[in-house]
Amino acid sequence: MLQSAFSFLLNTLFSIFTFALLLRFYLQWLKAPFQNPLAQMTIALTDFIVKPTRKWIPSWKKLDLSTLFLAFLAQCLLQFILLLMRGLPLAIHENFIWLSIALLAILALIRLSLDLFFYAILLQALLSWVNPHTPISGVLDALTRPILAPLRRWIPPVNGIDFSALVAMILLQMLNISFVVYLKNHLNSIF
Hints:
Helix content is 77%, strand content 0%. It is an all-alpha fold.
């Protein structure tokens, strides 16, 4: 019981940190405005580790690879710790274990990215009803535009109500459940 509580705590802390790194990565990649509280908080939370890492890992074609690498590294460390806590003998699975840890970390990054876009769409939809001109509306628009713009071409508004956000959230959850969770469970069942 204590082990599962510690696993939950580790998973939560590493996921929050990885989520912040991924948010920073996507904000830079999608050219979101950084003059708002959400972007400033993200920078403040991640600057301590991103700035030194940029000295060794440069950007490539406007992609901040150092931030993405740190998110991957955090998830690799989490997966390694969780496998150790489960009592997996590393010496037996030496070559296979590192590939599995890397694959689990990549799946975690995909899952967290899908969650990030899901929550951005949900928050944007809620704020559009309450206060569409909040300081973070530019950030939410930049994050959701790549997903919602293609859907809006296929799904016209019905009586002025845009259902593309609802369709996008359903599709993101379907991807998360059918693809990411399935692969993660399959990889975990090997051990």
